[in-house]
Each structure stands twice: as structure tokens, then as C-alpha cells.
Amino acid sequence: MKQRGTAATATRSRTVVLRTLWLLIAFGVIIVLAVSIQPRFQMLQADVYTLGDGLEELGLSLSFFSAYFVTLELAVAAGSLLVATLIAWKRPDDWFAMLVAISLTLFGLLPPLIDGLIYVSPQWALPVALLRFLEFGLLMAVLCLFPNGRFAPQWTAWLLLLHTLFWLGAFLVNPLILANTAVLPNTRTFEDALWVLVGAGWFLLAIGGQVVRYRGHATAIEKQQMKWVLFGFALSVIFSLTSSLLLITFPGLTNSSGNEAGVILILG
């Protein structure tokens, strides 16, 4: 009985710590997103992506363009935060579930919504880039460890290590490489698009690891958990790869201001 009571106390303590950590991170993310809305709208209204003429060709205004993307980016952040909240509240004593919740919470910082902070205050560039480097690492860790917090197949542990070293090297070479995550402006040149392809390629390898796990290592219950995660990650990675390859292979897609504005509205 005493051992059972000690175990229950330890579980409650861990639950409090993990839930408190997640709440602090969620609170911080919500504040950052909230203060980013006006600067992001201001940034888009200033036509920093030089799409004003193209939007005019399409019969659209910069005000519509600004509202469209601010709403879209907020929706992504709100959706990921909602899922994170459900996980954190249902599995607060599970360290891996909480890691997933934290990763989903920070996912809202990947879209270019918070780039507005950099626009009004360049000092934000390094903190924003650091948060995004951290989130990429967490996403890879989640994908390599899902759904039970263990590496399977074993080579996914090496994949996570190499991915971490790669982005550490990228940060040392160019600390601000993730200070701008808007799709089209980051794929206007071959070099920019290559970074997107390489980043997506890492996750494609991790998805391959998930497929191997699904076929040879997962239980029936784990397979049910993996289906939607695999689908969501695969859809996101395929979209990134496809959009980058299209812009590299068919530069004519953006050879006029009207075409460029149309492509960025479609690709988001």
C-alpha cells in the first residue's frame, strides 16, 4: 500500500510539473501571437512582398490580401493550440504526450504571422529564429518517437541526431535563416527553394521511419494512433516539396506580378 501511495504521489507531482510547463509555454505563445496580429497586418499592407501590382491585376486589394493571410495564419495557430490543449488535459502525466502538446503549441510560431514583430522591431529576428529552430527539432523528435516515446526502427535515433546537427550547423552559418517563413518569398531563387526542399526532405525520411514502424513494430492500438499523424505530416511535407519543386521547375509560374500574386494566394 505504501509503495502504491508513493507511486500515486509521484504521478501527481509529475502531472503538476508537466501541465505547469505546458501552460507557461501556451501562455507565452498566445501573448506572442496576439501582439503579432497588428504588426503582421501592417507588414502586409506595406507590400513587403511587392505583390501590390499583381493583386491589382487580379482585382484584389492589399487590405483583402492582408486580412486573408492574417486570418489563415491565426487559424493554423489556433487549430494546433486546440489540439495541444486536448492532449495536455487528457494525458498530463505522460511525458511524451506532453512533448507532443508542447510541439503543437509552438507550431503556431512557424507560420509568418510573427514575422510582423521583426518588421516593426528587427531585434525580434534572432528570438523568432531560435523558437523556430527549437520547433523543428521538437517536430522531428515527435515524429521519430511517436506513438510510444521509443525509437523504432532504431535508425530513427540517428536520424534525429543528424537532423539536430544539421540545423545546428545551419544556425551557425546563418542564424536568421528561419526569421522569414513565407513560402513564395523564400522560394524566389534556387538557393532559397533548396533550403525548403532539404528541410522537407528530413521529415520525409522520418515519415519513412513511421511507415517502417507501422508495418513491423506497432501494435494494433498504435496503428490506429499513427494513421492520422502519418496522414497529417505526409500532407504537409508533400505540399512543401511540391510547391518548391513547382517554383524551381516552372519559373514561368511567377514570371509576372499577376501570376506571382495568384500563386502565393493558392500556396498560402
Structure in words:
- The chain has 268 residues and is mainly α.
- The protein is 77% helix and 0% strand.
- It has ten helices and no strands.
- The protein has helices at residues 2-45, 52-57, 62-90, 95-107, 115-120, 125-145, 155-173, 190-216, 220-249, 257-267.
- Helix 1 packs antiparallel against helix 3.
- The longest helix is centred in the first third of the chain and has 44 residues, at 2-45.
- The protein is globular and about 65 Å long.
Task: Indicate the topology.
Layout: H1 2-45, H2 52-57, H3 62-90, H4 95-107, H5 115-120, H6 125-145, H7 155-173, H8 190-216, H9 220-249, H10 257-267
Features:
268 residues, mainly alpha, 10 helices, 77% helix, 0% strand
Brief overview:
It contains ten helices and no strands. It has helices at residues 2-45, 52-57, 62-90, 95-107, 115-120, 125-145, 155-173, 190-216, 220-249, 257-267.
Overall pLDDT confidence: 83
- Gyration radius over CA: 20 Å
Give the overall silhouette.
globular
Give the distance, in angstroms, between the N- and C-terminal Cα atoms. 57 Å
Helical percentage: over 70%
Classification by helices and strands: mainly alpha
Largest sheet: none
Tell me the fraction of residues in β-strands, as a range. Answer: under 5%
Helix run count: 10
According to DSSP, the number of beta strands is 0
Elements, N to C (H/E): HHHHHHHHHH
Stretches with pLDDT under 50, minimum 5 residues: none
